[in-house]
Structure formats: C-alpha cells, structure tokens
Amino acid sequence: MPRPIEALTHPDALAHNLARARAAAPDSRVWAVVKANAYGHGIERAYAGLRGADGFALLDLAEAERVRALDWRGPILLLEGAFEPRDLELCSRLNLWHAVHCSEQIDWLSRHKTQQPHRVFLKMNSGMNRLGFRPAAFRSAWARLSALPQVDEISLMTHFSDADGERGVAHQVEVFDEATRDLPGERSLSNSAAVLRHHLKNDWVRAGILSYGSAPDFPAHDIHHWGLQPAMTLRSKLIAVQQLQPGDTVGYGSSYTATEAQRIGIVACGYADGYPRHAGTDTPVLVNGVRTGTVGRVSMDMLAVDLTPVPQARIGSEVTLWGRGPVVDGSPTLLAIDDVAHAAGTIGYELMCAVAPRVPVHTAD
Ligand SMILES: *Cc1c(COP(=O)(O)O)cnc(C)c1O
Asked: What are phi and psi of 138, to 5 degrees?
C-alpha cells in the first residue's frame, strides 16, 4: 500500500472563489493567475475550476503552452514578458499577450519578425521596485512601443506592494494615474488583496491567491470573512499511536515534554511532503475532523499530533493537514491553510506551492 498521504484539489471551490472575485470587481475582466503550476494545484486540475475566467496569467512559457494545450483559445498573459528575444517567437505562435517591463524587451520586440502584431501590457514601477518603468520613463516607453509595427494594442499595468496591509495602495494609484492620465489603453492594477480590500477602476484584475481559497490579508481577515473556500486539501492518516507518561519527550531535539499522561498520534506527513518544518507545537490539524495541534518537531516523513480531544482516534484515522476535513455529525469540517501557515511563520501561498512531487494529487469529486 502506498503511504496514505494525498493532496486533493476542489474544482467547485475554484469556481466559487472565481465568482467571489467577479462579485468584488463586477466591472472588470478577471485574469486567473495560474503561475507556479496554479499555486501548486496543477494547471490542468485548476483549469477544471477556473475555465470561466476571462484569461490566464502566468510567467513560465512552458506553462503557457500547457494552457494552450487544454484548448484555451482566450487570452494568456505572460506577467514578466520575454526572458530572451526568442521567447517572442512563442508569443507570436501561441498568441500570448506579454508584459513589457524594461527597455531591453522593447529592443527585442523592435527586432522581432512577426506577421501578427502583439498585445502588450506595459508595466509601471509605481513603488514596488521589482519590475517596470519608473513613472518618468513610462510615457517614452509607451511612445516607443506604439511606433513599432510589431505591437498591436498597449495596455497599462502596475503591481501593489501593500494591498494586503496598512500602507494600502493609494500612494501607488496616485503615481500610476498621474503618469498615465492621457494615455489610451486598458488598465490592470489589482491583485487579490486589492480586489477584496480596495475597489479600484480596473479593466482587468489579476486574481491569484483568492482563487485558491486563502485570505491575502490573513490574519486581519480570514476566508470566512471573504467568503472563500479551500481549493486544496492535504490529508493523511495516523500510522502509529503512543501513550506518553509525564516527562516523556517527543521527536528530534526533545522539544516537547509531556506534563501528564497523554496519547499522541504519528501522522504520515513530514517536511519532505512540503509540510513546514517551522511549524512548532500546537500548529492546528484535524484528526477525524476534530481540531487539535501538532506536538514536537516535524520530521522528514512524520509528525506527531495530540490525541487528547480525539480519544477514539487509532491507526488509520484521517488527518487533515489543511483544507476540507471529513463530515462529522452531518457537518463539514475545515482547516484553513492560513491557520497552518500563520502558526509556521509563513503564508498560505508558500504552503500550497511547496507540496512535494512525492505527494499524489487527485481531483476531488
Ligand atoms: C502573482 C501575481 C499576481 C497575483 O497575486 P495574488 O496576491 O496571488 O492575487 C498579480 N499580479 C502579478 C504581477 C503577480 O506576479
């Protein structure tokens, strides 16, 4: 028998979350952001739930080919544009729209031979200082692009550094609006956090993490507040039970010491499965749908959980590391990935992207 761990993806949750994005940005078209293999869900699996989007945004050319191979005829946007001149050949062949964020990319376009002019998204660095033209250079980049026969339509985009936090987006929106005031073209500003928290004028929003059922501004708000559903479940089973006596320790480094008699369960899930090793004692977990916590250090293939609230648990009991738990007394159970990420000092994005290749993935029915 294979190890009992598996990841499940939930197409119904993806579709539900996409509908939340539409409701929050009713006047915008929605890019489903599916970079990093759809945030670890698998592009082909995620497509089942996200095909109602207006387009797919990603940055790896091989992933763009995978979306086209699914027979998606609509827009695909390369968020970082070409990495080298010959990438533009694939853009022409597969009709990929692409970001233009630096003058080298304009040079490459100007030398690119194509019958089919490209739709480009000109990117402004409005304060993130990662990709894009600074506001003072934006207009001349636009003028250069618009003079190229290789370019069809030019859209304008920028990315926020603090849409999820206290600083907010107003300072960047002001910079962007000022520098683009009389330029034509569609606008794309908002990521998930901006879609949910800041209602801005966008022709296209870029919905990533919210589609996968993680709150971009956790712990300020959680998925219940935003009406999102987990699109991934990581689950496993108990493979052993230990009865601890007071003074017994658990796992490497003996980081946990029992203060009284305590039953713990050993779960077939460790950091080699993508579970965060930084998760200390008391990281939330469900056993048979009952919420409890981890005990001691996470090892490569196993972790320990407190069975005190689940006295009936035994070898083979179901353990939900995050996502949908079993139905208990007629009610569905759930553990948000954000709760686990927060306890491990990270974010839901990192956990869903890090599920290891050795974990089999299935689509839930
Ligand atoms: C990843 C990414 C997004 C999506 O961000 P979320 O926070 O996951 O919604 C949007 N825009 C750009 C440019 C990105 O790289």
From this structure: -70, -45
pLDDT in tens, 46-103: 999 999 999 999 999 999 999 999 999 999 999 999 999 999 999 999 999 999 999 9
Q: Give the three-class secondary structure for 12.
A: helix
Confirm whether 221 is domain-assigned. no
Mark whether 165 and 201 lie in a shared domain: yes
Q: Which range marks the domain in which residue 168 is found?
A: 11-215
Helix, strand or coil, per DSSP, at residue 15: helix
Nearest to 280 by CA among 304, 259, 300, 262: 304
Give the pLDDT confidence of 149-199 residue by residue, as tens digits. 999 999 999 999 999 999 999 999 999 999 999 999 999 999 999 999 999
Number of domains in the chain: 2
At position 196, the amino acid (one-letter code) is L
Residues with CB under 6 A from ligand 1: 33, 35, 79, 159, 191-193, 206-209, 216
Beta bridge partners of 238: 267
- What separation in Å is there between the alpha carbon of 58 and the centre of ligand 1? 9
